[in-house]
Amino acid sequence: MKLDLDDRNALLARYKSRLQSGQAAIFERYLAEADAPRLLHERCQLVDDLLRELWTELCFPQSLALLAVGGYGGGKLWPASDVDLLLLLPGMPDAMLTEKLEQLVGLFWDIGLEIGHSVRTVEECLNEAAGDLTVRTALVEARLLIGNEQLFSKFNTEFRSNLNPQEFFHAKRMEQDERYLRFQESPYSLEPNCKESPGGLRDLQCILWIAQAAGYGASWQDLERHGFITHDEAQGLERRELFLQRLRIELHLHVGRREDRLLFDYQSVIAKQLGFTGIPTRRASEQMMQKYFQTAKTVTQLNVILLQNIGSAIFPSPKQAALAVNERFQCTNQLLDIAHENVFNQTPAAIFEAFLLMQEHAELKGMTARTIRSLWRAGVLIDDDFRQDPENRMRFIEIFKQPKGVLHELRRMNQFDILGRYLPNFGAIVGQMQHDLFHAYTVDQHSLQVLRNLRRFSETEYSHEYPFCSQLISGFDRPWVLYIAALFHDIAKGRGGSHSELGAVDAQEFCTAHGLYAEDSELIVWLVRQHLVMSSVAQKQDISDPDVLGNFAANVVDERRLIALYLFTVADIRGTSPKVWNSWKGRLLEQLFSQTRRLLRAGGKAPVTQGLVEERQEEALRLLRYFAVPEAAQEQLWKQLDTVYFLRHSAEEISWHARALHYRSDSAQPVVKARINPHGDGIEVMAYTKDQRYLFARLVGFFSRAGYNIMDAKIHTTRNGYALDSFMLQDVSGRDSDRNMISYIEHELIDRLMQQAPPEVPASGRVSRQVKHFPIKPLVTIEPLVTLQPDEKGVLFVLSIIAADRPGLLYIVAMALAAHGANLHTAKIFTLGERAEDTFLISGGDLGEQSSRIKLETELLDLLKL
């Protein structure tokens, strides 16, 4: 029947009201009872009823059939999910039926359903399914809502007869592998997708789709009856599925639309909804996410077991004789297999032996499902007696010493909960989030990432990534001590107090218990305690200062420790987040390493200042001659520069400045030169002009407006009253056109310095979501610099700032310093993700008075609050 406008509006109002009131009641019951399966079933039933009644009321021909497909076909409908439908026809529709179908779909939308629909004949369904895995998967769960039962039966029979379980298995496995790649093959993203990420609901759906296609059922109980999983595993899957279902439902209800990402924006609210409460050392959201990561880890493990077991049934192969590896293990189809079901119960020491065998036998491509299952269950055997057994301790250390498979097997041990049971303190950090705004991984995954980076230094195929690190580790005796340090360096995160100190205690206990040589134990414990030091010195202190270098060398003591700390620091920074590392940080670390090694080889004594200055001047002169600068041309400029300038700049920088300024050291007009950073990414800029108030703020404002972050700044005032300032800039605009920007920077900056116009306020930008939800309390300190060079003028102070990074941060600091009449000498800009830790060397103005310094600290704290 064709509806007139009034009838259509009345029909629409009636069904829309029923849908809204029905869903509201379902959601209200869920909020009261937290019964996820009931919500999914009731919403599905509500939509079923509405669609059937609407189909009947519109008098559709009995020859047609309306099918639910996809997730809706499986009998589960999420609060914000699409309703996937198939309108099945016996033949091609005529114009009248086409119009009627279009009217039906329009009504579905108008009453408030988000419809995903297709209109096909049986033949068209088969053709589409043959060429499209998504269509084929959706049709696996097809069920008849209303209409022609014979037509549905015909479709179902022909679809099943054309569905090849082996092809479907291969296709779904490849699809899962591709999906894993999209999520970096890790369940441990800090903002995971609870549906699509590894360990999410899609992993469970994938198992059941394959099982249905092969005729093994559509539930965990069905798979248990077929012997693919045990009763305990089936119950475990149900519990974890229930947790993931609740997460996804809460996301949909909280956001009010289809949203499957557990973004920081939602984690705190959803944690509260799920009943998590914060404690002094851990937020409610951190506890919820730790449970999520533990759930995802278990789901990925069961996914492996089930797909391997189902795959063995779908692809029956001729029985091959297993090759004995030893009395406890055998090789079956290139997989490590236990000789019998009670191997680990009878010989708990075989737990570590299994991982060692994987390292020692290159022909082994993995483990059989029953070995994985047995290892997983064997975790309960790891008790104090197991941990104190000398054989087990020896085997655990041997895993680190093997030439191959160290990372792979430690990851496997972590996946099977073996690692956390053997090292209970490591178990406490499994799945633990780090809301420090720069770590992109959970604590356990970060530790394994650091170990991964250290391993890559020693592998030939990766030697092009960090040639210097590869060169250093190739001559480093017993590199496995670094891997143990990697496992322990963050093991005390979340306990309160210094995680480096607490971790060093854990490392010492481990080394003593495992009988490591004193030299190796001392290095491991020292690395855990000092793993943040090199990064801090390189990026926050003036490494041109002989005293800074001398103190660092005294802490390091010898070259083996220095090499170990350098390798560890590079691996650690690289293991925090892809955003944190850059070539500038790499250059600073390498510079600190080279200078310290030279100092240690010279006996560890701090170099004499005058000798350093002469050395740099001689090298700069050599470079000037290379560029055909006339002899003695630099003398007029150098007379205006003091010792500090020559200590803080490299010979190459001194030469560059001299080439630009030797003939205009008393220029009335500003001189600005820019060039591509000779040591990495970004642009280096030199500005030379008569000193002026608000100069640093003017420069900062200009660079920010031009789309650059300042990575490093060296501010110097010459004896004749000129400012000679150097900046290392990094493009944050995404235009990737540093070379094209050089002339713009030189021309425009000269123009602004000549005009001495008010500093440009940097363009405002949005504060990141992470900073909004996990704010950093600003910290500002001003302390006197104790050790000075002989010709430093006045008293210098170190201004340290920790705050959430944001557009205009440096501009705020510059304006505050200018208001107090303070002179800036150096700026160390240290950014870790969304966290800024900047250090400034300042003097002059009213800083001599303690009350003025306190006032500046207070002002900056107020300005840095978000």
UniProtKB/TrEMBL annotation:
Quote the EC number: 2.7.7.59, 3.1.4.-
Matches recorded under InterPro entries: ACT-like_dom_sf (IPR045865), ACT_dom (IPR002912), HD/PDEase_dom (IPR003607), HD_domain (IPR006674), NT_sf (IPR043519), PII_UdlTrfase/GS_AdlTrfase (IPR013546), UTase/UR (IPR010043)
Q: Which residues form a coiled coil?
A: none
What's any GO biological process attached to this entry?
regulation of nitrogen utilization
Domain ACT, chain residue ranges per copy: 684-764, 798-866
Question: Is NAD among the key words of this record?
Answer: no
Q: Where is this region: Uridylyltransferase?
A: 1-324
Q: Note whether DNA damage occurs among the keywords.
A: no
State what inhibits or activates this protein.
Uridylyltransferase (UTase) activity is inhibited by glutamine, while glutamine activates uridylyl-removing (UR) activity.
Q: Which CDD domains match?
A: ACT_ACR-UUR-like_2 (cd04899), ACT_UUR-like_1 (cd04900), HDc (cd00077), NT_GlnE_GlnD_like (cd05401)
The record comments on the domains as follows: Has four distinct domains: an N-terminal nucleotidyltransferase (NT) domain responsible for UTase activity, a central HD domain that encodes UR activity, and two C-terminal ACT domains that seem to have a role in glutamine sensing.
Q: What does this protein do?
A: Modifies, by uridylylation and deuridylylation, the PII regulatory proteins (GlnB and homologs), in response to the nitrogen status of the cell that GlnD senses through the glutamine level. Under low glutamine levels, catalyzes the conversion of the PII proteins and UTP to PII-UMP and PPi, while under higher glutamine levels, GlnD hydrolyzes PII-UMP to PII and UMP (deuridylylation). Thus, controls uridylylation state and activity of the PII proteins, and plays an important role in the regulation of nitrogen metabolism.
Q: Which NCBIfam families match?
A: PRK03059.1, UTase_glnD
Instruction: Fetch the PANTHER family from UniProt.
Output: BIFUNCTIONAL URIDYLYLTRANSFERASE/URIDYLYL-REMOVING ENZYME (PTHR47320), BIFUNCTIONAL URIDYLYLTRANSFERASE_URIDYLYL-REMOVING ENZYME (PTHR47320:SF1)
The protein's name: Bifunctional uridylyltransferase/uridylyl-removing enzyme
